[in-house]
Amino acid sequence: MHGIETFQDLQREATEWRRYLHENPELDYQVHNTARFVTEKLASFGVNHIETGIAETGIVALIQGEGGEGPTIGLRADMDALPIVEASNKPWSSKIPGKMHACGHDGHTAMLLGAAKYLASTREFKGSVALIFQPAEEGALGGLRMVQEGIMDRFNISQVFGMHNSPGMEVGKFGIRHGPMLASLDEFDLIVNGKGGHAARPNEAIDPVVIAAQIIVGLQTLVSRNTNPIESLVISVTMLKAANAFNIIPNQVEMTGTVRTHEPALRDFAERHILAAAQGIARGFGGGAELKYRRHDPVTFNHTEGTNLAIKAARNLVGAASVDQNIKPRMGSEDFAYMLEARPGAYIFLGNGPTASVHNPAYDFNDDALPYGIGYWVNLVEIALAT
């Protein structure tokens, strides 16, 4: 297998790709230029089976190994940016006002392209590699749509793998764990109904703002007093909409929030008990509450065999001391979880160094991480599909 020195020569070219993508960010499913760029690069590498237009702008490309018949494994990179005004002040900052690659998907795409170039030139594996370039990871469920459009069956994918950069983790380090890696994500809307009136005469009204404040506090007891403290559950109320003037008690307050957990059963618990708690509190004040609950990403769950393969690939690249195989699960979410529900596999973190956090206007992907991501993908393929 290959150490990092094998992939250093690809860093300059991959950096050029990454910075071009960074300058030209696109959102959700509208990653038309990005998809064109990826398709052209893949064709130039000699990848001769490229399918486009999956989930509107997604791509799946196959590289056949020269080691004979074998399974197909999928490697996934996300392509979309975020609606954020960039403040990194880098020479390659976004040229598109209000859009930026604030999560490193430009780097993810560049690393998978680098791996594609290497694998297409060597093909020292059996079976095939399916390169999955996904749109709309940032909240629009592009991963789910690609699964729903049948990529796992169409391309006979037996295992699937994902990777994400991690600010704060040293470049050249990897982090992974068996089992739950990232949390599920659900959203809810609570409408608190009261009786409007003048702020000078609250006794004539049923103030939904006061009720909403009590509900916000009350929801935290669902976590602190109704669930096992060993099991993670985070309920956050993040948006409130009430009156439009300082002297009005409104008829209703609209509340929006999120639920995150590593335990699938707690999603059902949260949906039931958020409504029950809100209605109970509201009725105590003479008001009422309505709930709309939406399921989004499931738990990102690393399977045993795929996780072991990922650990071995990372260790072969950087050594065992640079691979933390038992990192703490995180409360962020990922729609790659849908791919891991469809097929076994694993998701790993790659060090991005002391950069700003993701989704921050000052964030930028660290180009020094590029050969590590490329090398991880290549080692993973050559281990999983060893001849």
UniProtKB/TrEMBL annotation:
Instruction: Give me the comment on cofactor binding.
Output: The Mn(2+) ion enhances activity.
Q: Is Ligase one of the keywords UniProt gives this record?
A: no
Q: Any idea which UniProt keywords this protein has?
A: Hydrolase, Manganese, Metal-binding
Q: Which cofactor does it need?
A: Mn(2+)
The cross-references to InterPro entries, in alphabetical order and at most eight, read:
Amidohydrolase, Bact_exopeptidase_dim_dom, Peptidase_M20, Peptidase_M20_dimer
Does Hydrolase show up as a keyword for this record?
yes
Identify the residues that bind Mn(2+): 103, 105, 138, 164, 359
- NCBIfam families associated with the record: amidohydrolases (TIGR01891)
Q: What is this protein called?
A: Amidohydrolase
Which species is listed as the source?
Bradyrhizobium archetypum
